[in-house]
Design brief:
By secondary structure, this protein is α/β, with parallel strands linked by helices. It is built from 9 helices and 7 strands, in the order αααβαβαββαβαααββ.
């Protein structure tokens, strides 16, 4: 499946600058605008990772580190690395106690092949210049049989969709703009969610790129999707 938005709209200096500008209030906006449900979504993702019994985990597009923190708590015996291309976000993650942090582009990861048992990405794949390229890099650094987990927004089915879209495209940008001073970042959010593959489309994308056993769970009425798959041997 081709990436639906041009690369310049989803990553590179424009998106990097956007995340730099909202870094200071990023967590506050997430928690308020999701009604605190983002804590639940990450806890559920961390429990899935725990079921893999991984020794080495890469949390990609780790941002301010919230998913990495949840995974580290669930999997205290695992070694976890967080990677992101936005230094201000990594500084916030470091203040949360995460030490193994790397500034890295998801399309050119600075790791050898087959070194991780699990790779996770929460609300980050959608922003990357090439979904296919990023997934190929995730597969490359996973050992055979290792798992990938993707947590990201979806457009729910009707009737919730009728209420969700006005919130996503009109109310949320105004509220987030007031909180962060960056209304444009949250207008972009709605556009990117609309274009991002979800449900069976994401599972098909994963299986077409060398993964197997792709699964999908919906949270909060379909507002968020959690996907897992394993690297083929």
């Amino acid at each position: 499946m081709p990436s639906a938005l041009p690369p310049t709209e989803r990553t590179g200096p424009s998106v990097q600058t956007m995340f730099t500008n909202i870094a200071r209030r990023y967590d506050l906006a997430n928690h308020l605008l999701s009604g605190g449900l983002d804590f639940l979504w990450r806890r559920r993702a961390a429990q899935v990772v725990l079921g893999w019994h991984p020794q080495r985990i890469l949390d990609l597009a780790t941002g301010s580190g919230d998913l990495a923190v949840a995974i580290a708590r669930a999997c205290p015996d695992s070694f976890l690395i967080g990677a992101d291309f936005c230094q201000p976000m990594l500084q916030i993650a470091r203040r949360k106690g995460l030490q193994a942090l790397v500034a890295a582009d998801a399309l050119r990861l600075p790791f050898p092949e087959a070194v991780f048992d699990g790779v996770t990405v929460a609300f980050g794949l959608r922003n990357m210049a090439s979904w296919e390229g990023a997934l190929a890099e995730m597969r490359r650094v996973l050992r055979p049989g290792g798992h990938v987990l993707i947590l990201d927004f979806s457009v729910p089915a009707a009737p919730l969709r009728w209420f969700y879209r006005p919130y996503l495209h009109y109310l949320l940008p105004h509220l987030a703009g007031w909180l962060t001073g960056e209304k444009g970042a949250y207008e972009y959010l709605g556009q990117s969610i609309e274009q991002f593959p979800h449900g069976p489309a994401m599972c098909a994308l994963l299986e077409g790129l060398g993964f197997s056993q792709a699964t999908h769970q919906s949270f909060s009425g379909g507002i968020v999707g959690l996907y897992t798959a394993a690297r083929k041997s």
